[in-house]
Amino acid sequence: AISGNSIDSWLQPIVNMETKQPIGFEALARWEISPGNFIPPNQFIPIAEEYGLIEELGNIMLRKSCRLLSECHKMSDAFKDLYVSVNVASSQLEKSSFLPSVKRLIENYHIQPHLLQLEITEREAVNPNQEVVPLLHKAHEMGFKIALDDFGTGYNSLSYLNNLPATSLKIDRSFVVGMDSSSTGIKVITSIIELARTLNLSTITEGVETESQRQQLLAMGCI
After folding, report:
1. According to the model, what pLDDT value does residue 122 have?
2. Which whole-number Å values give the CA distances from 136 to 43, 58, 92, 128, 141, in the listed order?
3. Which of 61, 89, 102, 191 has the smallest set of CB atoms within 10 Å of its CB?
4. For 128, which DSSP code?
């Protein structure tokens, strides 16, 4: 798939809860093996990680996502402030060539640094065996946004947030799915929103699919 250029980036809108207007995109990896027939990312990404291909896959996603964002910006002045959020593996970030290459990439596509958000999972951000925090700080100093993905599913201690230059927390979709059937999801989401507000961070809630969910989240203060 990698050598054959079969992995594509699909852009899923990130929408303001209040205005319903898109403010950016999340890049999703898609592997189409035949017309309309896809291998889901939860199957091929773990294999890429296991066989040491995740860095190459991640770099492909960055290139294709920046190209798509650049094309979007050219479509209308109304789209020029939209950003793209792309998952980055800690092994990518640790490469000395990574941040310089990303800088060259956005320059080639005439994208401002703050319009690229680098996502890293909570698990990878606090793994004691990886020195990603200084690199995240360097990325933030270069102007890139930093998002913690799948927030709320990883660690009990929140002290690590003091050391991370995060600009947003992404609330895992598992909490949204359970909102209509259980009060637990609502309580967790409310707690994360309050935490983010205290730390002056934005929140992105994944998996919102119904108007009822949007209304509930808006009432909780998620915009």
Report:
1. 76
2. 28, 16, 12, 15, 9
3. 191
4. T
DSSP secondary structure letter of residue 207: T
Pairs from 43-52 (Cβ < 8 Å, separation ≥ 24): 44/1, 49/89
133-141 and 98-108 helices, crossing angle to 10°? 30
Q: Which two tokens stand for residue 168?
A: 């947003």
Kindly give the pairing relationship between strand 37-39 and strand 83-87.
unpaired
Residue ranges of the chain with per-residue pLDDT less than 70: 126-130, 154-159, 181-182
- Which of 60-97 are b and which e, b meaning 16 or more Cβ less than 10 Å from the residue's Cβ? bbbbbbbebbbebbeeeeeeeebbbbbbbbbbbbeeee
The partner residues of 197 in beta bridges, in order of sequence, read none
Max CA separation in the chain (angstroms): 47
| Distance from C-alpha of 113 to C-alpha of 106, rounded to nearest angstrom | 7
Facing residues of 118 across strands? 86, 146
Decide: 151 and 185 in contact? Cβ < 8 Å.
no
- Token reading at 13: 């809108």
